Amino acid sequence: MRSVARRSITRSGVLVCFAAACLAGTATTQIRVRRDALDPVMRRAFDSGRLRELSTASARAPTVDADRATLRIDPRAMLIARDETVTSARLEGELLLPFHIGVVAEPAGAAEPVVLDLRPKVASSGAFVPSNGSFRAELIVSLVATGDSADVALPSPVELTVVVEGGEAKPNVLKFESLGQAQTVSLTIPAARDEVTVTVDLSRLDATPFKLVLSTRRGKLTMSATPREILGYGLGTATILIEADELVPTRSAIGLEADSGTLDPLRPTLDDQRGATATLRSDGLGTCTVRAPRWDDPRGTANTTVAYKAPIVFFVFALLGGVLGSALRVFRLRKQRAWGRAIAVGTGAGLLGAVLWALGLRVLTLDWSPATSEFAAFGISALVGLGFGTFWQPRGAKPG
Q: Which domain holds residue 368?
């Protein structure tokens, strides 16, 4: 019994010594890094307790000596921190993300270890563009060195997570095992928005994700009016021509609005050549701006103006036409005592006919151009005044 107990004690001692030796060996393999060797962002994270030591197995706060100025880092781990002073940025071109990855190295001939700074970098056009009924953009993400650390090896992989607000990112987890390794992320949103937020997070850092703000490129519209000046008070119409570029899908409905007047239709549809038309009828006098609100950004890029002018000349020509038409008819009567009344009634009828024609009532299939509307009013009024005598004769007059 004594020999068995003696052997058990001996084995236990050996195991304790072996474990102590292992712990001692582990302790001696750690690298001591002074706080002053960290970059400013990591120093702030260290002082606030947010600096993390990242290894394949875990992410934890680094071990700190009693002097509070020296860190002990596993050579197989990295230091990670986030610059909390930057919360978001609009992405246009290239951008370094505010995540700092520190790789501890012991260069030959150096008096003490150094911490090499690595940063994730994203590149993009910064805008979503139409594609097959949705809007798409791409991010090109890589891990780069900010100083003389082009040949540094990563002790463990670095993972980034990408999330699109109201959309989808493929892939949404990026894993980097070396510097210079670029990966492409496809971003998709179902509908256009003024701004799209894409959040990027460094895995296991437990910090606030960084927000990238991208825009949506909807395409451009150009609008023109023919003519630019029409009769007011509902007597004139203008054709609004809409043309779109290649970023605007065909068969898109373009919503319009006008300061005054009436538009028909309110939502014209682009044809296969990305063109559409609408008709504007005047209302009162002044200037009317027709715009496509969704596409008018910046303001003034998708609108056109039409002036409503006073229809004085139109009414003068309509009156003259009515007088002429009714006179030609009445002069053929045998008795002249009711000519004045007949001419007055015929002139009024001619004027009414001209106004109804201008408002869109087409009895005759005549298509006058806007530039000749006064002459058209004269002609229509004369025809109505001339024909009015067929239905009305002064008392005592005989048809000619």
A: 312-391
